[in-house]
Every structure is written in structure tokens, then in C-alpha cells.
């Protein structure tokens, strides 16, 4: 077993605090990473606070990791010691079902193994622990190669916020001539604007906060609609595609109204309460869709594109002892646009 130091929630109501724990013994196809940076996703907060109702404690959150490889198994040929690598939300799957064969491991029929909170397939007695920690052991098939040209601090959020927005934009073939809306300007929303703009779409941000308009334009938005403005929302029409990134309870019906005939509203946020919609969408053949992160192959394609086009997340770098304050700021929307933990500070904690 490999010793690790991390920050964990011991109960749904406790603050994250230092913890010593053990990673599983690496196998012949495993990599060991010294972790350098880890992003903070709103899903980490939902899980640490058991807001979805299935958390296992104690839990070390974190699924946006970048690190340097310190050890490789005897059967590993695609990585070597010293390489940079990333780990996202997935660390294993059954590998045999139709979704796995289609490189969509996140939809594995037998249940995907998540970066934290899952029973690891290699040892059913071990619960996976996440990236707010000093190291990680991962199967080489679920590790991602990091373009050396990019700033690692801004790369970490690409492993979740990046692929979560990339995947539906690519699935729906967003490109020049498309009118795209992005709901919410947070970790996901700011990446959605960057990608949709890079793909050549006309991009509009829907936000409750007028103060975010200037930032949205600097990120690549062509226009901004304040969603609390009833008249502005009524005037919003003929969108081909709207990507809703909000992870809190909200009304999606105004966005359905803003779609053109045959338009699509895609949900990528994970609220802890069910959203409701009116059946009027049947009158114009509109689509409500959902998308969950992306498979390993697609995530690597996203990283390669980011390397070629110099796209990273806008981040605020923090020390590990600021993580509880960062959780509160994420919930209140007070971050531009992703917190990333400098894990070097964990060693001195």
C-alpha cells in the first residue's frame, strides 16, 4: 500500500480536514502520480455534504488532477516516469459493455468507477479517494496525456469542467452559423463560452448577474442576456442550442421558449433537486438532453485541441488550508472561474 496525505470530509456536516490514508498497491498496469494541482468542482461539495444522498465517509474529494508520474507498472508502455498526466472523473469501468466499447465509459452498464467514493474494481474493499491529496494510483488506460505547452494550473479544470462542456458541443456539432446560449458563468459556463466561441458559434450568456457581462464578452461571448429581466427573456428567440451549466434548482422553461424549432436544451449541471418543465415543447419539436462528462478517448481529444489552441481554464490558485472557504465561495458564485489547489501546500500543512 502507498501512504497518502489529503483533506477529507469525515461527515456530511464537518469541514474538510487533514487525513492520512493508504492507496492500493500499484499493479502491472498502474501509474503512480505525485499530484501537483487539483480543481474544485461543485460536485465535490455536493458529495462532501451528501446532498445527493449516497456519499461514503470519510471522503477525499477532487477529480480534476494533474500530476507527474513517479512509477509505472511493468505492463505500461504509453507513459514513463517523469511524464505529466491527468486524471478526471473516471478511473475504471467494465470495459466490455456497449458504452465502454463505444468509448463512453461514463455510461458503463455495470457502473463506472469514479475517482472518489466508488468501490475500486481491483479491490472491492477499497473505496476510491480523490485528488485533494499528495498522490494517486490509476490504471494507465484511464490516465490522460497533458500537452506540455499549457499552464498546468489552468489544465486541471479541463478534466471535468472542460470535458463536460466540450462533449455536448461536439455531439450537437456546434460550429459557424449556430446560435448558442450558455446558462451560468461559473467553472462550466466559462469553458462553454470558450469552446463555443472557438468552434465559430454566435454565443450568448444567460446570467442573473449584470456584473458578469464584461467578463463574458472577454471570454468570447457575443452578447449577454440578464435572465432576471422578464422582457429580455421573452425577446430571446431562435437559439439552435442552449447549454445549461447551473448546478442549483432553477426554472428551465424560459430557455425552452428561447429555442428555435428543433432546438436543443442540454443540461450538464447536477442540481440536488429535480427540475420541472412544461409540456409545451412538443409544439415545436424541441429537445431536452443531458450529458455526463465524457469518455477517456474524447477527453484526450479535448486536451489535444486545447494544446493546439492554447485553451485553459481561468482559475484562482489557493492553498489547501483555504479549501473550506473556497467551498463556501463556490456555493455563492464568488470565483473566477475555478478554484485550483496547489498541492505542494499540502506537504507543509
Percent strand equals 25-35%
Number of helices: 11
**The top level CATH class name of the largest domain:** Alpha Beta
What is the total tally of β strands?
17
Mean pLDDT: 94
Outline: globular
Description:
With 349 residues, the protein is α/β, with parallel strands linked by helices. The chain has 2 domains: 2-160 and 294-347, Medium-chain alcohol dehydrogenases, catalytic domain (Quinone Oxidoreductase, Chain A, domain 1), CATH 3.90.180; 161-290, Rossmann fold (3-Layer(aba) Sandwich). It contains 11 helices and 17 strands. Strands 3, 4, 5, 8, 9, 16 and 17 form a 7-stranded mixed beta sheet that branches. Strands 12-11-10-13-14-15 form a 6-stranded parallel beta sheet. Strands 1-2 form a two-stranded antiparallel sheet. Helix 6 (213-219) links the parallel strand 11 and strand 12 (223-226). The radius of gyration is 20 Å and the shape is globular. It starts with a strand and ends with a helix.
Give the topology.
Blueprint: E1 2-8, E2 17-23, E3 30-39, H1 42-48, E4 65-72, E5 84-87, E6 90-92, H2 98-101, E7 113-114, E8 135-139, E9 144-145, H3 152-155, H4 161-171, E10 179-183, H5 187-198, E11 202-207, H6 213-219, E12 223-226, H7 230-235, E13 239-244, H8 253-258, E14 259-267, E15 287-290, H9 296-309, E16 315-318, H10 323-331, E17 338-342, H11 344-347
Parallel strand pairs: 10-11, 10-13, 11-12, 13-14, 14-15, 16-17
Antiparallel strand pairs: 1-2, 3-4, 3-8, 3-17, 4-5, 5-9, 6-7
Amino acid at each position: 500500500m502507498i501512504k497518502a496525505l489529503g483533506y477529507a470530509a469525515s461527515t456530511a456536516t464537518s469541514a474538510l480536514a487533514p487525513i492520512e490514508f493508504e492507496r492500493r498497491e500499484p499493479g502491472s498496469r498502474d501509474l503512480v502520480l505525485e499530484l501537483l494541482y487539483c480543481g474544485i468542482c461543485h460536485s465535490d461539495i455536493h458529495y462532501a455534504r451528501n446532498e445527493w444522498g449516497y456519499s461514503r465517509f470519510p471522503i477525499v474529494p477532487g477529480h480534476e488532477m494533474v500530476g507527474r508520474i513517479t512509477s509505472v507498472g511493468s505492463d505500461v508502455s504509453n507513459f514513463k516516469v517523469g511524464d505529466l498526466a491527468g486524471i478526471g472523473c473516471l478511473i475504471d469501468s467494465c470495459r466490455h459493455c456497449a458504452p465502454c466499447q463505444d468509448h463512453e465509459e461514463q455510461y458503463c452498464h455495470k457502473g463506472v468507477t469514479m475517482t472518489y467514493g466508488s468501490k475500486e474494481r481491483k479491490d472491492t474493499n477499497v473505496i476510491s479517494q480523490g485528488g485533494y491529496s499528495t498522490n494517486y494510483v490509476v490504471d494507465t488506460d484511464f490516465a490522460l496525456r497533458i500537452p506540455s505547452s499549457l499552464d498546468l494550473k489552468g489544465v486541471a479544470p479541463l478534466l471535468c469542467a472542460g470535458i463536460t462542456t466540450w462533449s455536448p458541443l461536439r455531439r450537437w456539432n456546434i460550429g459557424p452559423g449556430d446560435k448558442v446560449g450558455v446558462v451560468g458563468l461559473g467553472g462550466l459556463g466559462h469553458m462553454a463560452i470558450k469552446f463555443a466561441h472557438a468552434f465559430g458559434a454566435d454565443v450568448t450568456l444567460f446570467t442573473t448577474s449584470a456584473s458578469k457581462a464584461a467578463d463574458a464578452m472577454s471570454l468570447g461571448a457575443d452578447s449577454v442576456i440578464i435572465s432576471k429581466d422578464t422582457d429580455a427573456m421573452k425577446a430571446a428567440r431562435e437559439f439552435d442550442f442552449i447549454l445549461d451549466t447551473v448546478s442549483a434548482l432553477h426554472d428551465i422553461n424560459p430557455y425552452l421558449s428561447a429555442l428555435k424549432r428543433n432546438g436543443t436544451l442540454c443540461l450538464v449541471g447536477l442540481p440536488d433537486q429535480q427540475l420541472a418543465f412544461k409540456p409545451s415543447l412538443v409544439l415545436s419539436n424541441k429537445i431536452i438532453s443531458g450529458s455526463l462528462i465524457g469518455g477517456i478517448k474524447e477527453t484526450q481529444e479535448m486536451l489535444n485541441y486545447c494544446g493546439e489552441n492554447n485553451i485553459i481554464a481561468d482559475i484562482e490558485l489557493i492553498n489547501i488550508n483555504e479549501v473550506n472557504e473556497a467551498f463556501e465561495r463556490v456555493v455563492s458564485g464568488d470565483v473566477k472561474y475555478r478554484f485550483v489547489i496547489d498541492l505542494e501546500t499540502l506537504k507543509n500543512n
